[in-house]
Amino acid sequence: MATSSANANPARNEFFQQLAIRQQGETSSFKRLSDLTEELLDILNDQVNRDTTVLDEKLADYVFFPLSHIFRSHDQYPKRLIEVAIKCLTIVVHHGWKSNISPQILQQLLILLTFIIGGVPGREEARDLPEETELESLRALTALVAVAGTSAKAAAALTEEKLIPTLGHTVTVLLECVADGRTPAIQLEALRTLGCFYTGIKDQAALASFLPGIVSSLTKLLAKPRERRTGFSLAPYSQ
């Protein structure tokens, strides 16, 4: 009797069963939802440390489904919950979807993460984003742009005409993080994300449109007195 590849992989089945258990039950309270999301992160980290190949595209979709509900109402949830959900997202993007990420999901996540980091453009609002949540959002954005660079469809989705204003806002937010980030880690991660944009975006005209602003911002940063500067070094993304 023929056996499907999914059924023939005990590790994958075990991982799926663990995930299924975590998605059962009532999750209406913030405390319960936070606990479940923490458990999900532990499961994902444990699996990635043991065998990253188990987390494939289909399991990534399965994991992302409950996370998407959290992100849809991210401004209503505790920041710690959002931070943990973003950590899960980074694993899903980097180890699950990889080059198979949906262009539509890529665009949605680019908008989401940019808004979490920099707020909604044109809206004056008090920002109470914790430093660690901002850093994790930048790491997720780095992973997102890095995997986009490995897929022709995903890379093209970044520079679709309808997304150009969002992409421009993302670059602006990243430059603000580089110049005025609250910690060196935030500044460095924003630089890594910018570096991934330049290796991931294949549309040279789109890249050229952002170059003057990037050069200007980095020049201003380098012109600061030495004691006010952070020692930067671009490094490839790694999980």
Our estimate of the beta-strand percent is under 5%
SSE succession: HHHHHHHHHH
What is the global morphology?
globular
Structural class: mainly alpha
| Tally of strands | 0
- Average pLDDT, all residues: 82
Specify the biggest β-sheet: none
Oligomer classification? single chain
| Spans where pLDDT lies below 50 across 5 or more residues | 1-7, 233-239
Radius of gyration: 19 Å
- The number of helical elements comes to 10
Helicity level: 55-70%
Distance between the termini: 40 Å
Could you walk me through the main structural features you see in this protein, from its secondary elements to its overall organization?
- InterPro entries: ARM-type_fold, TELO2-interacting_protein_1, TPR_TTI1_N.
- One of its GO terms (cellular component) is cytoplasm.
- Pfam families: TPR_TTI1_N (PF24173).
- The model is unreliable at 1-7 and 233-239 (pLDDT under 50).
- The longest helix has 21 residues, at 30-50.
- Helix 3 (57-72) packs antiparallel against helix 4 (79-97), helix 5 packs antiparallel against helix 6 and helix 8 runs antiparallel to helix 9.
- The protein is mostly helical and 239 residues long.
- The protein is globular and about 55 Å long.
- It contains ten helices and no strands.
- It is 68% helix and 0% strand.
What's a concise summary of this model?
The protein contains 10 helices and no strands. The protein is an all-alpha fold. It is globular and about 55 Å long.
